[in-house]
Amino acid sequence: MKYSPPERGKTAFHCPHTSCGTYAKQTWYPACWTLGGNFTQVRDLGLAVCDHCSKYSVWLDQKLLFPVISTAPPPHPEIPEPIKADYEEARAVFQDSSRSSAALLRLAIQKLCVELGQPGKNLNDDIGQLVEKGLPIQIQRSLDIVRVVGNNQVHPGMLDVRDDPPMAVLLFELVNIIVEDRIARPKQIEALYARLPEGARKQIEKRDT
After folding, report:
1. What angle do CA 178, 13, 87 make, to 5 degrees?
2. Which residues are CB-neighbours of 78 under 8 A, at least 6 positions away?
3. Does the pLDDT at position 132 exceed 90?
């Protein structure tokens, strides 16, 4: 299912504890301290308890304090290893610097274009070449969104993901969508095709030649 990142006040999301990670209902409680038998609510501090594993997360305003993990979506299982390293680094810095994570994801799709047979010297040209080879418009736009947003993080006055947190999370999802469409799905289809009887495959190849 689609990844639902932990967020202050949401009634359900994917549990931030790595031992759980389940999409589950979250029950929120205020944090309090006691002195002389009197309870006082701690301002801006809250707890969420996962209904699946009963473990809690601690929040200050909108920031997750515990457990210390990234709230960005995990990488697609089929993401190539050289790209996975950049993706995981982007996740690691996401909480503290969404701008840095956007720039790293831009680097990730540049490497992904190399995996897809492009030179990797100019990302805009690589995407254009893929379009000429029949790249679906949705994947082209996904690549360009990550490219443009990533580029803009190092230019003052341009689009800043700090002003649009949902956009920052969406960039991770777009990279996973690209991997699913360009790498995972073709591998699945190729594996199924290889299971066809040899005679049927030869007839298909003869037809197509």
Report:
1. 35
2. 179, 180, 183, 184, 187
3. yes
